[in-house]
Amino acid sequence: MNSGKYVFAQLGQVINRYEFEKCVARYNGNHRVQELNSWNQFLQLFFGQLTARNSLRDICVCLKAHRKKLYHLGIKQNVNQSTLSRANEGRDWRIFADFSEYLIQQVRPLYARTSIPNVDIDNDVFALDSTTISLSIKLYT
Q1: In terms of CB atoms within 10 Å, which end of the chain has fewer, N or C?
Q2: What residue ranges do the domains of the chain occupy?
């Protein structure tokens, strides 16, 4: 039996929502949004990234399987694949780019004095996850 908050909910609390909302307001990200706001889109994609989901369908199926726990995870609602796809297509990508820059600025001082073994580079080194979702041709024919 669960006696505390889920790990994902705790991670969601660490993320500075105020800074995220500033990025959303800068690009008018929630303008004329009916179903899926930017924060919930971010949380669902964040969930998919942390749980190593391979596609939007996989994210939506996994969230649907845990729909009774979504509130406790900090996710307002689960949505279907087409809604999440439309949100990814229509929402300005600069919201997430600006927020990732903010997160990098927060993390950079924590590792400024940490050396990387067997690597001798004078400049900063960044390791960003550029995971791509492979598409099946059979799904689109």
Answers
A1: N
A2: 7-140
